[in-house]
Amino acid sequence: MDATDQMRDKTMESTTLTPERTEDTDLAGAIDRILDKGLVINADITVDVAGVELLGIKIRAALASFETAAKYGLEFPSGTNFETAAWKETMIEKEECPQCGKRVEREELLNFACPWCGWESAKAKKRKKAGVKVEVQ
Fold this sequence. Notes:
alpha+beta; single chain; two-stranded antiparallel ribbon; 6 helices
């Protein structure tokens, strides 16, 4: 085995892919990701017998949380009451706190601190240092 073969073998060893699991590998984590990102299924099904189409079905299904669906502008069933407190809460933009992972209102997280763990953004620290007061509407 010459030096080139040894170098190639070393390179192959270092680039070997190994599967890694993240924290959310259980069913609850998978469902949470699907609801957070959304899942759309489009299917066209046809049944032909001897070249004659007997049945044609088009299916479009979406699976997402109300928050995700609203963000992408999906239509909701007629009669949906958009004036409920839960719906209004969904319409508030939220971000995930980088420290604790909880979802917090975006303006509060950027301008003040996370109410759960106390994490402060650079913007909030800068304003605090300058003594600027910010009011959230």
